Amino acid sequence: MPALRSRHPVRSVPGAGRLRDVRRTPAALASTATLMALSVAVAPAATAGESVDAALEWYDTTAATIAAAGAPTQSTNSRTWAISWLAAARALRAAPAGVNRRDYQDAALAGAVHTSLVALVPARAQELDAALRRTLERIPDGPAEERGVADGQRRARTVLASREGDGLDPASVNSPYPTPQPGPGIWQPTPPTYSPAVQAGNRAARPFLLERADQFRPGPPPALGSGRYRADLAEVRAYGSTDSTARTPRQTETATFWLGSSLTLYTGPLRVALARSHRPAAERATLVALFHVALVDTQIATSDTKYAYLRWRPVTAIRSADIDGDPATSPDPDWTPLHTTPAHPDYPSGHNTYSGAAEQILTALVGPRTAPFSLTSPTAPGVTRTYTDWRTLTQENVDARVWSGIHTRSADTVGVDLGRQVARHTLRHADRLFR
User: Fold this and answer.
1) List of the chain residues with pLDDT < 70
2) What confidence score (pLDDT) does residue 335 get?
3) PANTHER family given for it (predicted)?
4) Which one of 17, 295, 346, 370 counts the least CB within 10 Å of its CB?
5) What sign results for the dihedral spanned by CA atoms 378, 383, 386, 392?
6) Main-chain phi, psi angles of 105, to 5 degrees
7) Domain 179-434: which CATH class?
8) Which pTM value belongs to this model?
9) Burial status of residue 346 (CB atoms within 10 A of its CB: 0-12, 13-18, 19 or more)
């Protein structure tokens, strides 16, 4: 590909230094979108004369950036999405008079997401510069382009500054957490690695819209020895073991399909919603922004609840819990879950708080159903599933964590409820993000 040429010198505008650098950078770079196999098919690149959807273009660039060089902590990556797309949504809320609206909005979106991502994932600056150049080469030089980029950059700097020191960096998220003294029901490190607890620092992070981390903290998990507790353990014991004879092949596939990062698994469904939306550009950017704002706050609320109750994982309970003489809760020291248990408490399930919040945002902003879409999973190669609504994804997540042997059903269902509550709060107070 030959180097891209500027048709006219770029005028001096606030924050345009990087724009000038980008326009002079050689363009022989692979598209960042090819660096990540998204959960749904990515639209092919436009040919000459075809219209390009800037929102999808920068959605794919964001996904590829995080996949290639993102943080090791999911909440940090959700923060990157939230900051980048909140800046874009703010920039798109109004276009100045006297300029081409579409050109201005494409430039503003690109300027906002590019500036945010370069600041948050600097290792990808070269690829991000190339992506910005590709967008700007489609836009005629002039006030719409220049003002759009400048406004997007300004919005990005404002959002970045507002989130500085929010405690969502990897070191803060995974701040050391002392292992509690052993006791019935109390979380302990789990086999096979017996690693110390992670993600405890999320509960001390600054939310986007929650007033405090415990704002929607649910009531405690089922009491040890209660009927609900025994039923939970009996189900996991029967269906969640590595050698279960009760679990069907389809249930095993479900557990494996939803095993990976929720952020990765929901990148595809959110892209489907964005691609099929015919709303104005600002509303489409707001969809992505609010989705991830809600998910950051949900992850903060999840860690608050987990570390408030410190409920042990099923593997610990099943191996050691002879609580009341009931055969369903007598110890089974050799019991092993289908999948390795993550290093944090059981209650609630983080996968399911994520699912509940994601479902609530998508349902509220694009409706509960959509035309069929196919979804794949990096943890289940070769498996493709088709969906027509968002709730089925949540229902499968609830079952999956039980069939993986790593959560009780109570932890899953309470998690869904918590995620939905946080998401509803996000939607009710979204106007605070745009003041």
Assistant:
1) 1-50, 321-329
2) 95
3) PEROXIDASE-RELATED, PHOSPHATIDIC ACID PHOSPHATASE TYPE 2_HALOPEROXIDASE DOMAIN-CONTAINING PROTEIN
4) 17
5) negative
6) -65, -40
7) mainly alpha
8) 0.89
9) buried
